[in-house]
Structure formats: C-alpha cells, structure tokens
Amino acid sequence: MKNFDPLETLISYLRFPSVSTDKEFHEGMKDARNFVGGLLENMGFSVELIETECHPVILAERFVGEDLPHIVLYGHYDVQPADPLDLWDSAAFEPEIRNGRIYGRGSADNKGPTIVHMSALQEVLSEQPDLALNITYVIEGEEEMGSPSMPKFFDRYSERLSKADMMFVSDTGSPTTDQIVITTALRGLVELEIKVKGPKSDLHSGIYGGAVYNPLHALSEIIASLHNEDGSVNIPGFYDGVSKIEHWERDELKRYPLNLEEYQSMLEVPGFYEPRGFSPLEAVRFEPTLEINGMGGGYQGEGTKTIIPSEAFAKITCRLVAEQKGDEVQNHVIKAIEERCPKGVKLEVRRGCFANAYSVIPPNKSEAVECSNFLKNAFSVTDLAIQKQFGKSPLYLREGGSIPVIADFKNRAGLDAIMVGLFTPEDNLHAPNESFDIELMQKATATFADIFRSLGEPR
Amino acid sequence: MKNFDPLETLISYLRFPSVSTDKEFHEGMKDARNFVGGLLENMGFSVELIETECHPVILAERFVGEDLPHIVLYGHYDVQPADPLDLWDSAAFEPEIRNGRIYGRGSADNKGPTIVHMSALQEVLSEQPDLALNITYVIEGEEEMGSPSMPKFFDRYSERLSKADMMFVSDTGSPTTDQIVITTALRGLVELEIKVKGPKSDLHSGIYGGAVYNPLHALSEIIASLHNEDGSVNIPGFYDGVSKIEHWERDELKRYPLNLEEYQSMLEVPGFYEPRGFSPLEAVRFEPTLEINGMGGGYQGEGTKTIIPSEAFAKITCRLVAEQKGDEVQNHVIKAIEERCPKGVKLEVRRGCFANAYSVIPPNKSEAVECSNFLKNAFSVTDLAIQKQFGKSPLYLREGGSIPVIADFKNRAGLDAIMVGLFTPEDNLHAPNESFDIELMQKATATFADIFRSLGEPR
Known about the structure:
The structure is a homodimer of 459-residue chains.
Chain A: H1 6-14, H2 26-42, E1 46-50, E2 57-62, E3 70-76, E4 96-98, E5 101-103, H3 107-127, E6 134-140, H4 150-161, E7 166-169, E8 181-186, E9 188-197, E10 203-204, H5 215-224, H6 247-254, H7 260-267, H8 280-286, E11 289-298, E12 307-308, E13 311-320, H9 326-340, E14 346-355, E15 358-359, H10 373-390, E16 395-398, H11 404-413, E17 417-420, E18 435-437, H12 438-455
Parallel strand pairs in A: 3-6, 3-7, 7-17, 8-16
Antiparallel strand pairs in A: 1-2, 2-6, 4-5, 5-18, 8-15, 8-17, 9-13, 9-14, 10-12, 11-13
Helix pairs in contact in A: 1-3, 3-12, 4-11, 10-12
C-alpha cells in the first residue's frame, strides 16, 4: 500500500463536480465515486458499489475478525450546486489554496472530512496493518438530495450494518477552528415545492391587470401566512412532538465561543428572529423551521416587463426537531397551503422527501442514559483525543443541519453516531467560496488517528 | 417612389429584435430604426433621428403647405422582451405565417399597426401625390420602457408638434377582429423595483434557519400586504384622484362582444378579482392596479438547495386612471413598502418612470365636450371608415394599457388622439406567440386609406 498525501488527494477529489441534484453532473458524480472507491481499495478495503435509483452508494469493508470492535464511517461524495457561480473568487471545481484554506465546492461538506478520516486511518494502518478493528465505510451520493435511496439501501444492508457497534460522522460544524463540537442532535428535513398557476400564459398587465389574479400575489399571500411575526411557524400541528430542551444543553451553549453581536456581525444581518422566545443561537438548534429556499415567477431580466405571469413557484424545506414526524409535518404544511390558496389560482404541490430528527445523549452529560460500553468508551476516547489535539474539551451541542440518513442508521441498524464537527462558519457551507481550514484538517486527522488507535487496542 | 408590399415589409421589420429594455439588443434596435426610417424616406418624408439618452426617436415630416390640415402619426419601433423563449411555437424573431396570422414579437405591438398606417398612406399618396395633408411621424424606441426620453424630446419639439391638429395612434386593442374599439382613455404607469437584503451571502438553511430573517419571507410579507382580498390596493392615498365613470361608458361596455364566461375561458383562469365592486371587464378599464410583474430569490434550478438566500427582488408596476398623479402614487407605494418592511432585512428601492393617465371624450358621446372642428371631423371620418370596412360602428371604450407618451402629446403639445385599436386578445400581446391577424391588417389599411383621403379633401 502506497500512502497518499492528504492535501493533494483532497485537491484531486474536489475537481470532480459531483452535484447530485442536477442531472448535468452525472459524469462528475461517477468520477468522484470511482476516486473515493479507489482510495479505499488502496487501503485494503473490499469495495462494492451499491446501485440505487439515482446515485450508487459506496459500501466498503475491512473485516479483521469476529468478536472484534466494529465501527461504521459515514460520509457522502455528492456536493451542493455551486451557483451563483459569479460570486466565487476562484472556480468552484478548480480548488485553490489561499491563506491556509482550500477553496472549492465540497471542501468542507463533505469531501475534506472524508479525507480526514481516510488519512487518519492510513496513518494508523501503516503503523499497525493488523489493527484489531473492523471497519465499514458507507459513502453515499444523495446526501444533498435528502438521501432518498437510503431507505432501500437499509432494506438490503441494515442487518449487516447492525453488527457494528456504533458509527462516526464528520458532517457537522464547530463554531471556531479550535473549539470542536460533538453534535448530539440533527434536525429532520421535509421538502416540498409548490406552483401557483394563473392564466394559461403571461398576460399584458395593462390589458388584464385588475381582474386577473396574479400568481405572484397569490404565492406571496400563501408564503406570508406561514410565519408569525417572531419567525415561528403559523401552521396548525406543526409543533406537535417538539419537546423541551434539557438543562445541560443550555449550559453547554453558554460555553459557546461566539456571542450574539459577533454572530450578527459575522452574518452581516440587521436583526434576528427570536421564535417563541428562543435566542437566535438557541433557535437554530432547538427549534423547527420552515424556510423558503427559492421562489420566483414572471420577468427575471433587466428592466421592466409589464406582465401578469402565468405561474409562480416556491421551494420549501422544514427542519424538524425531537419527535416531530416528517410525514405528518409535510401533511400539515400542504393542508395549510391548500386552505390558504386564493380561489383565483390553481395550486400544484410536489412532495419531496422527509426525514425525522436524530439525537443521542452523550453518556458523560446525563446519568439517565442507557448506552453500550463500547459507545461509552468511544465517546470518552473521542473527548480525550479532541482535548489532546485541539487543547480544549469538545462542546456537546445540538446542530441545526440535517443528515437524514443518521436517524435511519439508528432506527434501521441500531447504530448511534458520534458526530465530530469539522467545518466552521468561515467555511461558507452551501454558499459561494466554500473552503476548509488546512490546520484544522491536520489536527482532525491526528485526532481520528488517536481514536482509531485507541479503539483498536486490546481491551 | 416604388411601392412596398405590406406583408413582406412587416416580415422584414419583425426580423429585427428591437427589445428596448435589454442592452443586448442594441443592434436590433438600430436595425429596426433604420428600416422604418428608410420606408418613410421612400415615401417622401424628411427623416430625422433625434438622439436621446437611450434609443433615438424617428421624427419624419411631410410638409405640403401652411394652413393645411396637419396630423401626427405615432408609433414605436421597440418591442417587449421575448422570453420565456421555450414557449414560442416559432422563434420570436423569425416571423412565420400560420392560419391567417403572422407570428413574431412585435407583430401586433406595434410593428403591424405601423405598417398598416404606412401602407394606407402609400396607397393614398400613389393616387394623389399632392395630398393636401401635412403629416408628422413620431416613432419612438422606448415605449416598452415607459418612454423615459420623451419628456426631453417634448422640451425640444413640442412647439413644432403643437402646430398639428390632432394625432392618430394604433397601439390599443379591440375585442374581436370585426369589432373595432376607439380608445377613449389610457391608464398611466408607475414603475419601481425593490430588493430585500438579508445575510451577506446565501446561508445553509439548517445551520442558520430559524434565527436569520429570510429575505423571501420578508418580501412575501411586503407583497402580500399591498392588496386586499378583493384585489383592490391596500396603500393609503393610492386611490386619490380616481373619479367616477360616466354613464355612456357603462353603456358602451354593454355592447362589448365578449361576456364574462367567454373572457374567463379565453384566459383559462379559475376566477377573477372584482376590486371595489367593479366587474372584471370594468376593472381592467376603470380601476387602477398594482401588479408584481416579476419576483425572485434563492435557488431557481432543479431539485432542492437548502439555503437562506441573501436577497430577493420584486418588479412592480401600477396602472393609473383619471387624475391620479404618477409621482404621488410612486411615493405612496414606496412609503407603504418602507413602513411594512420587517426590521430583520434591508430594503433597496429603485424608482422607475411614471406617467399619468390620458383621456379624450369623443364628441359624439357627450355634448359637454369642447373640441376643435378638425378633431370633431376626424372622429366622424374615422367612425364612418370603420363602419364601411368592418361593417360595424366602433365601440368607444377606455383601455387598460398605458401609452405614457399620449398624455404628454396632450399636455405638452395640445394634441388629442384618436386611438384605433388594431390588436385583439388572440394576438398574445407581451406574451409568447404574439401574432397579428392578416385580414384585419388589410381591412385596417383600407380604413386608414379612407381616413387619410377624407382628411386631405378640400373643405
């Protein structure tokens, strides 16, 4: 086995434009998949490509022996769309190093962290080729689509996966490059798109204006009705299953290294929502949301075009917490939209995927937790490795983002996840100029090497 | 002078993509301008191109002698943008004849009617080269932008234009190809665009969702607040200057050859607004409006992108009636938007142009009208010519559209307009598959030939 250079490898990996949501990037998806599969084969894994209805899953195994500890490492090889392209300082798929950061779509989400895990593993395996640790890699290609094929994947592989003890994931964030967060919960996700249809084609707004219902007016009325003034969601049943937060969770958040003023100036926003009395820093972790991710209709070009547009659309996602059910929330939202749609237009709804929230209570934070010894040990080993490499204990916090598949790993294969957050706000996730901090990359690699070494030690 | 073929000439004219609002079409504008200027020169006009800050005005004169009747013919060589291009059955700027119609952007608005006037004039001039009628052509290139350069044009040329007796315009509509409307009023126009700005760049909707004010939510709230449920405008002061309609106007509308069911099925809409108790057919003529012509923000592509967009925009136009003042309405709208903009986002407003409404009371409809003998005669001649060629008296109706410059011709040069409507709802004005009826084109040419002959007769 010839060792790879972590940074060079990441640069090569970033060159593949693996945008899963857009069919145009089919080749980039294939190339990224083959690249990462090749790396795993090179490290001695037996690699399978599991076909799905869309993008195959990479399933790779290193089996050393029965009755040995067994971990799962999860990641994804797909990335978010890169547009708006003109806001990137260097091209999204031509990675560039500037000021200690590597820029490129996917650098932080999730290609950099994937290379961190692999580099750490390569380091330990070159010291101990017989490391007493069974490892299964699951690297999917539909995370940025909401992992629609994973339920079928679990139909076939959950039994095999359930033999593992737990899993590691690095697809969450930390507030700064030296304060690592272990994520204790992920929000669920509900997706839908609505289209409001008016006249059969765009109409002259002078000749027909005043009588014909404008789809953009109707859509705005619907969208405006979905929130209250404090930013909370105005849909009956939406908050069913939302539970109170724990004392230790508020305590951990007090140690958060960013105060509200810094948070505000970082984002350059004039103000914040404070839904249902939650502070902004609490709201993004503890509260469910309904966001319009895209909306449009009518003339989009320069200047004016005096029309009543034929139709208008809105792309909607909700983030769920605690026991909210994805299917029920989707139904509540659709029902509210249908009821509020003015009679002068027609409504079309496209249901997208949905996924429930996930949470794990770390054994060192609550005594009431039932937890396997292996998971308890893994949490402890991870905590110590982070302290050693980053100089500070990790924070245990809920996360606002979603990795829908993590709840499935728990529900379908019984696997709890230790989620070590490796991206930071400066990384511009899902936005132009996404980047990954190279020093953090190196420290995180050392951290995971410590973790893999410890977990492979005879017990 | 060699006579041109009307239909072939229109086809050539339609090939020039003269979209005034988009800089990309600079060449098309120039070509269209030169083409129509060439036609006028060929008919013996002295043609001047009057430079403006944007697109030059064609000013052409045929001066036969002092103390002779003098008419102005107004038109515009610019057209609306052609998008969405994929909804056209034949390319927007590659004219095609199908089923007795000529398809192409600008065929009805306003290139077809311009060729009608010219063909009629060519016919009369070839019979009577010395026709005792002074004629001034004003063909501008910014009508679809709201004629922003025309005030300065009037600063220089209103005195010269004021020597004319009245003007003809064919830039309005008729309900069917055999029921011609003489338009007695045009709505004014107010233009503006707003941008709502949130975070400095698009943000991950999971990581920041719930705290950061989403510009699309804010924009929807603003837009939704601008109308009442009946479609009327919810802005203080908006209706100042709106007057009651006259009895004869309601009477004329009763003769309108389209009932509400036909109107609805033609437009394929599920229902209509009935603002302030006006029926839909009344509302589009008698009521002012506020329309969102385009709106957008966030992800516009296929699938989902889980972001909070950095900004969102809306393009707004109002149509004014009677004594509403464009500048005041613009101020009222901006004030309401500023007051209603949530504090969590920043608002940017671009003021567009504005123009007041115009009306002329036809002498045969109301005895209370003061009106020159020439205008009285011109109305009568036009009414008779339409009866003769189309077999029915014209209807005298207000029109929902705007030709901002017509009010300026009245206010700056004292010219009232006889507006003979030559496009019909089937023409798809401002929309994909714009077309112009060829039989109507021929009848209208004969009508205008009759009019020009009569007006040039010794009196």
